[in-house]
Amino acid sequence: MSAVNKKFFEDFTSIPIRDQSLPNHFDAGEVIHIALNFTGTRLAYSRSDGSVRIWSMMNEGGRESVVIESPHTKPVELLCFNPQEEFVFLTVARDEYIRVWRTNGVLQREVQVKSPVNKSGKGSDKANVILQHVGYSSDGQIVVVADREGWIYGFDALFAPIFSVDVGEYVYSIMWFHFEHKYFACGLQDGSIPIFELVEKSSEHQLLYEIRKLTTLRGHRSSVTCLAIDPRGIYFAAGSNEGVVLIWKNETMLVTRVISDIDEAVTDLDISRDGTYVAVSFDRTASGKIYDISLGDKIYDIPNSLSGSQVTPQIRWFPQKTTFVYVGDKGRNVVLMKRPEEGLRKRADDKMGRLGDGDGVKGRDIRDSRTNKDHRENRDKRITRESRESRESRDNRDRDIRHRDKDTQKRRLHHQRY
């Protein structure tokens, strides 16, 4: 199976997505964070020059871009798309604001987050916070943010505050399980992974939640820097500073696979749409790699994917096809990696009025409908041709009959005359 998987990636080609520098900037800086929307039609990423770039992926390699020059006063630390709204995403940038954007660059909303306690811990005069993480629940109904003090804040879809919890450690990553908005896990600085449950409780004016810690997973000896869940909900992966990736099974909460062939800090994880592959980014001198998630075997070395001087590399799989984007050129550019034939299929699908991956059921349905249409057109042409031939044959037959009738009538008249 590994040999087959390795063969699959051999034909992948790279398509750099190149940005122009902002006015009065020497260059565009390095890429800090990348995200894809749930349809794979928009790619957004932040740069160290303070900008956010949004690319339309409707065409091969991206053809249309929107630039938000200063979404915050500082460079955007993290951004994420709404899993229910294709063209809406959130940003945080080491300040106290969550900002809601549309992919056309329009600021839709700004939410200020305040700590439930002040610096002295007495609970009066709520203090501003410094946000470093933001994410949606799987159903898009809950937004969570984490600050650098170890507090996690929850908001409903309208950004009304519904819970806050102090986990007591620096939060590197937050991951939601596929149970709407019921369970989430955190990757913490002490190497633990606490799993929390959100329990609804009634309120006179709004729905609030009680936070319960279900369990704490342990297995790493250093900070858990990143978490990623299998889109099928079977596994999730955790990466750490000691260079170890643990594959956990959701049903049992037990480790099923250990990936530890690279002795460098893991900076980013993402799992492919079908749960077959896990993409891993490393700090410093190791390139990004793709592993078979069930076997733990390395399948592919991602070219030109070393860390930049300021930021760490990242990889994101497309949600509807086995294609990915990553930060390449030592943090300078985002690169699309894809199989060549996907572009040909996509262009054919575009002619049918949609952007398809050509690999899934929808792509097959379109090809089948196109084939059926061709069959119908050929059948109609054949019927038309046969009908025309039949009509011509009938006309010729009628003409012959008329001629024969005339000849017969002439002979009859001739006999009558003589």
Structure description:
This protein is an alpha+beta fold and 418 residues long. The protein has 2 domains: 2-342, Methylamine Dehydrogenase, Chain H (7 Propeller), CATH 2.130.10; 360-418. It has helices at residues 2-10, 340-351, 361-417, and strands at 13-17, 31-36, 42-47, 52-56, 64-68, 78-81, 88-92, 97-102, 107-112, 131-136, 142-147, 151-156, 161-166, 171-176, 183-188, 192-201, 208-218, 224-229, 235-240, 245-249, 254-259, 266-271, 277-282, 289-292, 298-301, 315-317, 324-328, 333-338. Strand 12 and strand 13 (161-166) form a beta hairpin.
**Tally of domains:** 2
Strand content: 35-45%
How far do the termini sit from each other?
A: 98 Å
Largest sheet: 4 strands, antiparallel
Write the layout of secondary structure elements.
Blueprint: H1 2-10, E1 13-17, E2 31-36, E3 42-47, E4 52-56, E5 64-68, E6 78-81, E7 88-92, E8 97-102, E9 107-112, E10 131-136, E11 142-147, E12 151-156, E13 161-166, E14 171-176, E15 183-188, E16 192-201, E17 208-218, E18 224-229, E19 235-240, E20 245-249, E21 254-259, E22 266-271, E23 277-282, E24 289-292, E25 298-301, E26 315-317, E27 324-328, E28 333-338, H2 340-351, H3 361-417
Antiparallel strand pairs: 1-28, 2-3, 3-4, 4-5, 6-7, 7-8, 8-9, 10-11, 11-12, 12-13, 14-15, 15-16, 16-17, 18-19, 19-20, 20-21, 22-23, 23-24, 24-25, 26-27, 27-28
